[in-house]
Specification:
Number of domains: 1
CATH class: Alpha Beta
CATH architecture: 4-Layer Sandwich
Distance between the termini: 52 Å
CATH topology: Anthranilate synthase
Helix content: 25-40%
């Protein structure tokens, strides 16, 4: 068991920076930050889990049963991530597209040190919390730069993207699917990056409630995601799919009008309700009968670059339900697949040109009491420092009514913060 001790922070921002710099020296750490967004389901403002006592690292095999074994009788919080390609274990699917990143399908670790940030306090869990407190405070703050060097390329040119959207709409006309989330990758080979500098700058440009920075050896997840996939609080499951995006404006009056237009946009509402129905169906597979409910429909929330339409769906579950059973019912998330889900995922594999990997997967944690909280990996840079391969993907929902040109522009809008971070126009 780890010992716990609380410390008051005179300068919380500086201490977090020192803690991240201290964590950099370890092969494994996970940082989750809510950026103080109000959220009734958040258990803490921020979390830093450092160094691995024991890990579960799976690139093939029975990942879900291994996860159950790994978390059985756990005594502490366990962070980790799940790749989109876990779908192949849940359904009879495959992933054969290009993969320059080579992340595991699933990775969780039992940390040696845990830091929980709330208001102006930090709780340190360690064998000797005071030793960690002193080590972090002794860390010298270093100036951080993104340090990006490389040429960003796109897997699709604009014409190829437009043709692919039209092809997917032919499947919709034939009744194969109603909606599909179609994504494209932007990437750089022989890329140089300072991952911590990149995360700090991305989090400054685009602070979001599910931001995260994850390192395992030479693999980095640098994320400004605004979306929650799934949260468990006791016997309650909560999912908050995002479907519906609009730009921000520096003019306050125009910005409010854009927000109102998003809330009333028939196309965006249609997309959102389709995914809400899909999430309701997913949750019903593990819910107690009659407990699935839509707590909020078409809520519009504002972030630094965009307004987003977010709905909340919840249910009650049997307290004995294992995480593997819940994931089999709900993963991958409907907002990143489409409806019907399996048909959409088959077409995603056919039309996309990159393996999604961690993108549109999930990063989060499992607590000792069985509660968990997982995000949706979007608005994220993935970096393999050993291969010097950098990647970010963006996508949008394709429906029968979708305008291919507008969907392409939506993708570029979603990539705006990352493009600004890298200070590089795509080619």
């Amino acid at each position: 068991m780890l010992n716990k001790q609380k410390f008051e922070l005179e300068n919380p921002i500086e201490f977090k920076l020192k803690a991240l710099q201290w964590a950099e020296s370890f092969n494994t750490f996970c940082y989750l930050d809510s950026n103080t967004y109000p959220d009734q389901y958040h258990a803490f403002d921020a979390l830093l889990a450092v160094d691995s006592i024991q890990s579960l690292n799976i690139s093939q095999g029975d990942a879900l049963s291994a996860l159950d074994d790994f978390t059985e009788d756990q005594q502490t919080l366990i962070p980790g991530f799940i790749s989109y390609d876990l779908k192949n274990e849940i359904e009879s699917l495959h992933s054969n597209n290009d993969d320059g990143l080579a992340f595991p399908i699933l990775y969780f670790f039992k940390p040696k040190y845990l830091l929980f940030f709330n208001d102006s306090f930090v709780e340190i869990q360690a064998t000797d919390p005071e030793l960690i407190w002193n080590a972090i405070n002794a860390t010298q703050v270093r100036e951080q730069q993104t340090g990006f060097e490389g040429i960003i390329k796109a897997k699709f040119n604009k014409d190829e993207y437009l043709q692919s959207v039209k092809g997917l709409q032919e499947h919709i006309k034939r009744g194969d699917i109603y909606e599909v989330n179609f994504c494209q990758e932007f990437y750089a080979e022989q890329a140089e990056l300072n991952p911590l500098g990149a995360f700090l700058e991305l989090n400054r440009i685009s602070p979001t409630p599910f931001a995260n920075f994850f390192k395992i050896d030479q693999h980095y997840i640098i994320s400004a995601t605004p979306e929650r996939f799934l949260c468990r609080r006791g016997t309650r499951l909560i999912s908050q799919p995002i479907k519906g995006t609009a730009r921000r404006s520096a003019d306050q009056e125009e910005d409010e009008q854009i927000k109102l237009n998003l809330k009333e946009n028939k196309k965006e509402r249609s997309e959102n309700v389709m995914i809400v129905d899909l999430v309701r169906n997913d949750l019903s597979r593990c819910a107690l009968p009659g407990t699935v409910q839509v707590n909020e429909l078409f809520g519009v929330y504002s972030f630094q670059q965009v307004h987003q339409m977010i709905s909340t769906v919840s249910c009650e579950i049997d307290s004995k339900k294992k995480l593997s059973e819940i994931l089999k019912s709900t993963f991958p998330m409907g907002s990143m697949t489409g409806a019907p889900k399996i048909s959409a995922m088959q077409l995603i594999e056919d039309y996309e040109r990159s393996k999604r990997g961690v993108y549109s997967g999930s990063v989060g944690y499992i607590n000792a009491n069985g509660d968990f909280d997982f995000n949706v990996v979007i608005r994220t840079i993935l970096y393999n420092a050993a291969r010097k391969y950098l990647s970010y993907q963006v996508g949008s929902a394709i429906t029968y009514q979708a305008n291919a040109e507008q969907e392409y522009e939506e993708c570029l809008l979603k990539a705006k913060a990352i493009e600004q971070l890298l200070q590089h126009k795509t080619t």
